[in-house]
UniProtKB/TrEMBL annotation:
InterPro entries: Phage_TTP_N. This is Lambda phage tail tube protein N-terminal domain-containing protein. Gene3D superfamilies: 4.10.410.40. Residues 25-145 form the Lambda phage tail tube protein N-terminal domain. The lineage of its organism: Bacteria, Bacillati, Chloroflexota, Chloroflexia, Chloroflexales.
Length: 145
């Protein structure tokens, strides 16, 4: 019977670059669930009057790196979260940053990509922790290595 090679996702890190020469990446504090990148291929409809038996025909168009979304335990004064230095500031200033998702697979497999913070939604429930949901809109080609 085959044994699964599944990897436990606990310990995955999301890091943000400082934009400097010899860029330094800092782990974003208190990240919970991470989704993405959500890669897609735009399909272009090229159906014409000569298409075989009236079936739609398509060709591949532009590739899209999509989004990375994640949740955090929001710490308003944490350097990677704050309005003065973190994700909120980057969104307000329309700052493009480099990011890395580092998987705990024993090989340090990473997704690297450039992105803008496109959404920052904080949540403050009556009975629960202060949290936030963030979206990163990827620009250009993400790399899995």
């Amino acid at each position: 019977m085959p044994v699964s090679a599944a990897v436990n996702a606990f310990g995955t890190l999301l890091k943000i670059g400082d934009g400097g020469g010899g860029e330094v990446f800092t782990t974003i504090a208190e990240v919970q669930n991470i989704s993405g990148p959500s890669l897609s291929l735009e399909m272009i409809d090229v159906t014409n009057h000569s298409s075989t038996a009236g079936w739609k025909e398509r060709i591949g168009g532009l590739l899209d790196g999509g989004e990375v979304t994640f949740d955090i335990n929001f710490q308003p004064t944490a350097s990677t979260h704050s309005y003065s230095a973190g994700l909120v500031k980057d969104m307000v200033n329309r700052t493009k940053r480099n990011f890395k998702i580092v998987f705990p697979d024993g090989s340090s497999t990473t997704w690297t990509f450039s992105a803008f913070v496109s959404k920052f939604q904080s949540k403050a429930p009556v009975n629960g922790q202060l949290s936030a949901s963030i979206s990163l809109m990827i620009t250009g080609q993400p790399t899995l290595a």
